[in-house]
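Reading a protein record of the kind used here takes only a little practice. The record below shows the convention in full.

——
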Amino acid sequence: MRIDLHCHSTASDGTDTPAELVLGAAAAGLDVVALTDHDTTRGYAEAIAALPEGLTLVTGAELSCRVDGVSMHMLAYLFDPEEPALLAERELVRDDRVPRARAMVAKLAELGVPVTWEQVERIAAGGSVGRPHVATALVELGVVPTVDAAFTEEWLADGGRAFVEKHETDPFEAIRLVKGAGGVTVFAHPAAVKRGRTVPELVIAEMAAAGLDGIEVDHMDHDADARARLRGLAGELGLLVTGSSDYHGSRKTVSLGAYTTDPEVYGEITRRATGAFPVPGTGGA
């Protein structure tokens, strides 16, 4: 089995629609794909309706979190999307995305960059707006060559000249909320140093004690040394180890299925979840 547990669609900051994502996953030879848009479950219905036979969909989300001043992402799988407490927190985070993006546009204008809110809104196309949409605007204007090149201290990285903070959930609260909604939690790309400061291993140990299920080890932002270190840490803490592409369509160079999760780990994730079940494809609507 080939299993990719971290992918984005146009419901947040990917460039493939949810339907295109699942069809692309099947074409890439995947058996299981997870839809993990940022702080939203809006893409579920379209993905399920288009799900081809032979492909299983894991519903999820990537939650925006912050601990001790460090921004981090928490992957949540197979939770009940209508559970009130987690739904309210997701809406709180998502509602802060628009004023934050507007504030980044204003900062860029102060820096002499003619990005407009209308441009960012067009790029987001109704998705959960975020920094990648602002970064894409910078690419369109020729300010930077790629989306990744916008995530530097000069522009949009944490603490960068055009960076603006947003509401982010405490990860310990996120673990509690996801567990309360019957879901499973995995710390996304914990050693992605190029994104900025990373969470200390001591805090990861504290999250493990609080119920964190796993850490994403095999990821494009982790080199071989980081993967080895994270595997050792996962072994010490009794955490599951996942691998995923973090696919964003044309917004990133990584392809679907570039990194995958062991079937036994996937099986354990599905065993632990009580809020939702993987959806088997039946050929689409």
